[in-house]
Specification:
The protein is an all-alpha fold. It contains 15 helices and two strands. The longest helix has 27 residues. It starts with a helix and ends with a helix.
Length: 330
């Protein structure tokens, strides 16, 4: 279970990237399935070439920025649908990843990595490694929360909430999309870089289906802790990533469970995370924690409808806040 905590914290960086595009920017980015491998493969080749482990890790994150920019340019300049832009980049990166790695699997058993001091002292997979990774994730969470409260971060959030309104307010939404996608894929590639160094290899298939894990982490976190506050949501996403890994680890400990069923289990976890907030018990707990509204006919701001629950967005659309009388012009 301690190793699951390590992996949950490493994957938390990937989940933060998915949160940035899926929840903040409202952009369904499938690039991460390949940018994760791009970060891992670039770091692996750099380490085998004798690079310093920290420099190789930074290089892995930088290629993620390039991957995100490609998807962003396809969408903003090429006017390609976000979903298709992500798929095109993802497919193209598969061949590029093979070019970078030279083969489908690159072992790092004799290479020095950022985890080598911990591994040599038998501290990997212990409370010590969990504490160090938790500190690293906390630093990235703090920087991300700070960024989302800067002018650029607020512009990025406005683009995700209402792109047309943001553009009417003078925000360059194309630029905010490029920044958001670049940062998101940088976090995903950094997660892939650390994962490859932790596991001791980089594999061409290690990112396939990763979007499901990322969405599961985001949805679990936002479903359990519904909030419109960014700092709470960021922490909830990290908690969702850890919870997801613990669930996977618990399933692997079941004797009859086949590791080939992992994808099915991931899909079931996402389905449960989507349906759980609609249960009467969950809704009653949330309702009991909400303050009484003065206007009973008005939908509370922090109450989500079915469509918002599916998307993981617990904030209702602004048009639904208007009372029925005002809609009729009375």
């Amino acid at each position: 279970m301690i190793a699951a905590l390590d992996l949950g914290l490493i994957y938390a960086l990937m989940a933060l990237g998915v949160y940035l595009t899926f929840r903040i920017l409202d952009f369904a980015d499938l690039t991460i399935d390949s940018s994760f491998t791009t970060g891992a493969g670039t770091t692996a080749i750099a380490l085998l070439s004798g690079w310093n482990p920290w420099a190789a890790t930074v290089a892995g994150a930088l290629v993620g920025i390039i991957a995100g920019l490609i998807t962003g340019l396809l969408n903003t300049v090429g006017k390609i649908h976000p979903l298709l832009a992500g798929i095109l980049t993802q497919i193209g990166l598969y061949s590029i990843n093979l070019r970078i790695m030279g083969k489908a699997n690159v072992p790092l058993l004799r290479s020095e990595t950022v985890f080598t001091p911990l591994r040599n002292n038998h501290l990997l997979g212990t409370i010590t490694s969990v504490g160090i990774l938790l500190f690293v994730v906390a630093v990235f969470c703090t920087v991300l929360i700070w960024f989302l409260n800067t002018h650029l971060g607020l512009a990025l959030r406005a683009t995700g909430d209402n792109e047309e309104m943001a553009r009417a307010q003078g925000i360059n939404t194309d630029m905010t999309k490029l920044v958001g996608l670049a940062l998101s894929n940088a976090l995903v590639a950094l997660s892939g870089s650390l994962f490859a160094q932790y596991q001791g290899f980089a594999d061409i298939s290690m990112g396939i289906g990763l979007i499901v894990a990322g969405l599961a982490s985001v949805i679990i976190g936002t479903a359990v802790v519904p909030t419109s506050r960014v700092w709470v949501a960021v922490i909830a996403v990290v908690g969702g990533s850890i919870a997801y890994r613990l669930i996977i680890q618990a399933a692997l400990m079941i004797p009859w469970f086949d590791p080939n069923d992992m994808k099915l289990l991931s899909a079931l976890i996402v389905v449960v995370a989507l349906l759980a907030p609609r249960s009467k018990a969950f809704m009653s707990v949330r309702k009991s924690n909400q303050p009484k509204s003065e206007f009973s006919s008005v939908q509370p701001w922090d109450t989500a409808d079915a469509e918002e629950l599916d998307s993981g967005d617990t904030r209702p659309a602004s048009k639904q806040v208007t009372s029925p009388q005002r809609k009729g012009g009375k």
